[in-house]
Write a structure and sequence with these properties.
five-stranded parallel sheet; Rossmann fold
Length: 199
């Protein structure tokens, strides 16, 4: 069964630049995250919260032995009584400065309030990366961007899977180092399984 899923995934991605682009972007993400200086902050738009990417990055952080990849999910709306890891609001971006990495996932242009906070964080020294739908203002704020334009061979959700899998790639020997075939099998499972219950 694993071989079938891997073959399906390879067929979908064959002849595209997405695996290489995801690895490049994931390499920039790994290089920018400094755990002791603010870590990785992950934020979406008011309409699109990247909770699924947050969950996959947490998994990749554990599997790869790179705890710095586990993000803090910054939310536009925080409901009362939520656990601490789900109760971080936009005010957290105001504290982002040198050493922090801010990953913005924006299929469409975010509201002006978020754009201003991201701009302020960048001016304060944070590294800004974006997974976006091509909005020029979002791309202009990012030090590194990966754009999934309308009509691309894959959608933004698939690219988030590729990026999270590539972020966890490493060369550790033994059980913590995962071979590419294992990673593709895991990614194929993710892409062909129903989505998990929402946080």
């Amino acid at each position: 069964m694993d071989a079938v899923r891997v073959a399906l995934l390879r067929e979908v991605l064959a002849g595209t630049e997405w695996p290489r682009a995801a690895r490049r972007f994931a390499g920039a993400l790994r290089a920018s995250v400094v755990p002791a200086r603010g870590g990785l902050l992950l934020v979406g738009t008011e309409e699109y919260e990247p909770w699924h990417l947050a969950a996959h990055l947490v998994d990749e952080a554990a599997w790869s032995g790179q705890p710095e990849l586990a993000p803090t999910l910054v939310r536009h709306r925080v409901r009362a009584g939520r656990p601490a890891h789900l109760a971080v609001g936009l005010g957290r971006l105001e504290a982002a400065g040198r050493g922090a990495t801010l990953l913005v996932v924006a299929p469409e242009r975010p509201g002006a309030g978020l754009l201003q906070r991201v701009h302020d964080a960048r001016r304060a020294g944070a590294t800004v990366l974006s997974l976006d739908g091509g909005d020029p203002e979002v791309r202009g704020l990012a030090h590194e961007a990966l754009t999934v334009a309308e009509g691309a061979e894959v959608d933004l959700d698939t690219v988030q899977h590729l990026v999270s899998a590539a972020a966890g790639e490493n060369s550790l020997p033994g059980p913590r180092g995962r071979r590419l075939r294992d990673r593709l099998s895991t990614l194929a499972d993710r892409l062909t399984s129903p989505p998990p219950a929402r946080w």
